[in-house]
Amino acid sequence: MAMRKIYLDNSATTRVDDEVVGEMLPFFTEQFGNASSTHQWGQQAKQAIEEARNQVARLLNGTPNEITFVSGGTEADNLAIVGIAEAHGDKGRHIITSRIEHPAVLATCAHLEKEGWKVTYLPVYGEGIVRLDDLRKAMTDETVLITIMHSNNELGTLQPIREIGELVREQREAGRRHLYFHTDAVQSIGKVDVDVRELGVDLLSLTAHKFHGPKGIGVLYVRRGVRISPQTYGGHHERDRRAGTESVPLIAGIGKAAELARLHLAERSGHLRNLRDYLEQELFRIIPDITRNGDAERRLPSIANLNFDHVEGEGLQISLDLKGVAVSTGSACSSGSTEPSHVLVAIGLSQDTGHGSLRFSFGKDNTREDVDYVLETLPAIVGKLRSLSPRAVKKSKLEAGA
Length: 402
Fold this sequence. Notes:
Blueprint: E1 6-7, H1 18-24, H2 40-60, E2 67-70, H3 73-88, E3 94-98, H4 103-114, E4 118-122, H5 132-138, E5 143-147, H6 161-173, E6 180-184, H7 196-199, E7 203-207, E8 218-222, H8 237-240, H9 248-263, H10 265-286, E9 290-292, E10 303-308, H11 313-322, E11 325-326, H12 342-346, H13 351-354, E12 357-361, H14 368-387, H15 390-401
């Protein structure tokens, strides 16, 4: 009998939707033209790109000319941050971000620090959320960019993006006209409503493979009127923001994924929340010494990040994998590291405690039966690993003596 396989690592990547695959296939074969060509093959490709641009714009409540196609979330973050820095560095050289940003943001900020920029990293405290008072105190006349993620990829915590957008608007009205606001919304798209007009952001990053689209394609939303410096040269593609021949199949794919995400948002969000809550409720009931990492309410419906006392998260992850269950001990971009996640450190977990955390992340294809299998499998794994843990053994002896 084949081992059951259950994928609960949808924050790392998702399965491409069948409808998305169907949308992409013709552009590998029959409609293979270069969108820059003026003949009918090229115009077919160009039409597909513009349709996808419209589909993404409708998802975000933006306009098509505000949508720039890039290779993914990492490039979108780089283009947003460095693009603003290079275009507006004469007005100031200060950036504000948070300690729990994705490495695509943190590494880019670190690069700019080497170039002489000052970067302020806001704390997030135990709940994993930045505070507006800290942001206000960090702002100076030199501040050019605020980059705060919409939701955290490990904890799922939702940041106060709308409130930050209002603060930025107030600052502009007070005279700080060259202050811009970027958010990495890679984890949020397809799980919660993301409306760029309501949020008040100037730039927003997203990538297709987090909401059942293909890998290798993403978007940088750039509000109309915001000027950024391109980071690639060689052509006038994407309104001079990103040179290079467009990948029409991938662009068609992200367009279709965006359309499906918009049409099914409420249904998918409710489904994800029900599965997450069921998992957490039952695990807290049947396994002792579990805590939740991050805020319990202000978070994505798709992520449960739980800490299991006296167990190595890596041991849990490997043991579950052997049973056919895919989960994560952190973000996919930091997997393989022996150090605890920078996100868990930022919310105050010690090195020992941080090592005992698992991230369960749900997708639209998961079922209640998937959760039931985890509930049947995980308790025995935790029990076995705890029996081998020196800390757990010591605690048991102390309790027995008491």
